[in-house]
Amino acid sequence: MTPLDTDDDMRTEALFVSYLQISQQPTPETIRAAVSATVDRLGEHGCAALVAQEFGEHPDCAQSRMIWARRAVKTAFNG
User: Fold this and answer.
1) What is the C-alpha separation between 55 and 48, in angstroms, rounded?
2) DSSP 8-class letter at 26
3) Looking at the domain assignment, is residue 3 inside a domain?
4) Which of 18, 43, 47, 67 could cross-link with 34 by S-S, CB 3.0 to 4.6 Å?
5) How do the pLDDT tens digits run along the chain, 79 residues long?
6) Which of 6, 17, 5 is nearest to 42 (CA)?
7) pTM of this prediction?
8) How many folded domains does the chain comprise?
């Protein structure tokens, strides 16, 4: 088992609950700005709570959005 990258996990949750949409094809700069703004607005715990809520209410959509968010964060923050 590999250790979790808590920074990437938090960023992924923030992007997941942000206003950005996959269809907007956001740039790395836009992704970083959205993550920052979302964490500032909701805090880390607020982001996690909304992720849990979305998976509970819309599991059919949440999985694909989480996959996108994880990939987008890796690209935007880890090059």
Assistant:
1) 11
2) -
3) no
4) 18
5) 344 568 999 999 999 999 999 999 999 999 999 999 999 999 999 999 999 999 999 999 999 999 999 999 999 998 7
6) 17
7) 0.89
8) 1
DSSP string, 9-20: HHHHHHHHTSS-
Residue 17 contacts by C-beta under 8 Å, 6 or more apart in sequence? 38, 42, 47, 50, 51, 54
The dihedrals phi and psi of 15, each to the nearest 5 degrees, come to -65, -40
Q: Is residue 21 part of a domain?
A: no
Q: What is the rounded CA–CA span in Å between residue 28 and residue 74?
A: 10
| Token pair belonging to 77 | 């923050």
Q: List Cβ neighbours of 51 (8 Å cut-off, separation of 6 or more).
A: 13, 16, 17, 62, 66
Q: Confirm whether 41 is domain-assigned.
A: yes
